[in-house]
Amino acid sequence: MSQAETLRKLHQDHLTDYNRQEQQAIELIALLNKLYNEKDVQVTLFGEPLDTTSVDNVLALHQKSAARDADAKAVTIEDTLAIAKVLAESDVTALRVDAGQLTVNEGDLNAALQNVASDASAQNEATDIVLYGFGRIGRILTRLLLSQASSSKGLQLKAIVVRPAAAGDLAKRASLLERDSIHGSFSGGIRVDEENNGIIINGRFVQVIYANDPSEIDYTAYGIDNAVVIDNTGKWKDEAGLGKHLQSKGVQKVLLTAPAGGEIKNVVYGVNNDTIGDDTIVSAASCTTNAITPTLKVLNDEFGIENGHVETIHSFTNDQNLIDNYHKADRRGRSAVLNMVITSTGAAKAVGKALPELGGKLTGNAIRVPTPNVSLAILNLNLNTAPESADALNAFLRKMANSSAWQSQIAYTDSTEAVSTDFVGTKHVGIVDAQATIVTDNHATVYIWYDNEVGYSTQVLRVATQMAGIRYTQVPA
Question: Do you know which CDD domains this protein is assigned to (predicted)?
């Protein structure tokens, strides 16, 4: 066989194999949507939701999973499809199954399902969600909530509250949701319902309410009751201000997407979400606090952190000026797109609220830089127990990133080519950059990338889910 014939055969074999995988992905997507809609059963791959709107994304996620750990078994589309078929034939509900962990650890799904059979009648009732504010985080939350298959259970986005505006506001709001300069076009259908003052997103009607203050709103008049309000405005950060939401008819709980003051709990999901209890007002802390706290926790548990400093290289935000102009805060009046701007950050202090054992041990500063999204936290830590080497520390962090306990909060990259735009849109909260790790005696420097919009928003929704009383049995446990 000539070289040309060999290459033609190789090309055909690869194409045939990919076409087979495409058909399996199409079958898998249909099953996943049915499981979610009818049984409230979700299938993830190493903590990452499978995008049921894109065959290419499902295949790419499986391909990427093969690079997680060179020593572990790769997870194929056939593996996940087989798991989905077993779930479709079972009678369990309110379940989250990680196909990646189950496959790699050679778990027995049938045996696991027998153990959760007693929960077969479990149901997660629908919980109304109201987004108070519709800026960067508000729109990302909307995308995340409405990009998955429709369901009568779980978090249901019912309304968006914004300040009163001029004619044409609805169309502008819809356009900002549909077109995003950072995250691209919304994958789905969006249209304005002027008559009912709302936006229809992927077939679901979302009411737009205009108000200057929560006290003006009666949500029950819009068919909304026992809602969780996610306040994205940052206008109120204490109980007196956020408590206004609870005075509105139809509201049961409030979640703030910014660090809170006073006695309000600052929660980093995966670290201290077990402290929420029956709290009616909770803070999801900040994007930086969420990005660094999980890694700080595992490092402290393993090596002990004596003290340290956190430097955040943070993308500019809306509160800065495009060009030099008056700003009440120091330095932030200078052009965000032309300058690196040193500013303060409460992230290091906030870590102590989520992780009390590190209270008072960390200092922090931030440098706002001329990029619109994805930030980088640099952890300079003095450890009680010195790692053997940078490789040993990286091996530990990779193990944590691959564990079922931390896979949703900690990710890991060993690429020598990784740059900030590679992490736009990642749902992982913080990504350890192994190439940058430095260890000198008991001093360690760890670099953590994070999408300060999407990564943080996934954490916000995890906290909201818990506050709503929604529970899932995890398989594997």
Answer: GAPDH_I_C (cd18126), GAPDH_I_N (cd05214)
Please give the C-alpha separations between residue 420 and each of 143, 438, 454, in angstroms, as whole numbers: 22, 20, 14
pTM of the model: 0.92
Measuring CA to CA, how many Å separate 230 from each of 19, 142, 225, 357, 382? 43, 11, 14, 29, 37
Q: How far from each other are the two terminal CA atoms of the chain, in whole angstroms?
A: 52
Q: 152 CB contacts (<8 Å, ≥6 apart)?
A: 37, 126
Structural domains of the chain sorted by starting position, each given as residue range(s) with its CATH number in brackets? 3-119 (no CATH), 127-258 (3.40.50.720), 287-453 (3.30.360.10)
What beta strand segments (E) does 169-270 contain? Answer: 190-193, 198-201, 204-210, 227-231, 251-256, 265-266
3-state DSSP assignment of residue 230: strand
From the list 301, 455, 321, 300, the residue with the least C-alpha distance to 377 is 455
Query: CA-based angle 59:291:409, to the nearest 5?
Result: 45
Q: Contact at 8 Å (CB) between 340 and 353?
A: no
> Which backbone phi and psi does 117 adopt, to 5 degrees?
-60, -30
Report pLDDT for 122. Answer: 57
Q: In what order do the strands lie in the sheet with 190-193?
A: 190-193, 198-201, 204-210, 155-162, 127-132, 227-231, 251-256, 281-283, 265-266
Where residue 469 falls (left for φ over 0; alpha for ψ -120 to 50; beta otherwise) is: left
The residue from 258, 287, 299, 310 that is catalytic is 287
Q: Give the residue carrying structure tokens 């499809």.
A: 81
Burial tier of 435 (Cβ tally within 10 Å: 0-12, 13-18, 19+): middle
User: Which residue has 């495009």 as its token pair?
Assistant: 322
> In sequence order, what E strands does 25-162 have?
41-45, 48-49, 95-98, 127-132, 155-162
Q: Is 11 exposed, middle or buried (0-12, 13-18, 19+ CB in 10 A)?
A: exposed
Write the pLDDT tens digit of every residue in 96-134.
999 999 888 887 888 778 777 555 445 678 999 999 999
Sites in the chain below the pLDDT cut of 50: 120-121
For 402-438, how does the pLDDT look when each residue is reduced to its tens digit (9 = 90+)?
999 999 999 999 999 999 999 999 999 999 999 999 9
Does the annotation count 287 as an active-site position? Answer: yes
Yes or no: say if 94 and 119 are a contact pair by the CB < 8 Å rule: yes
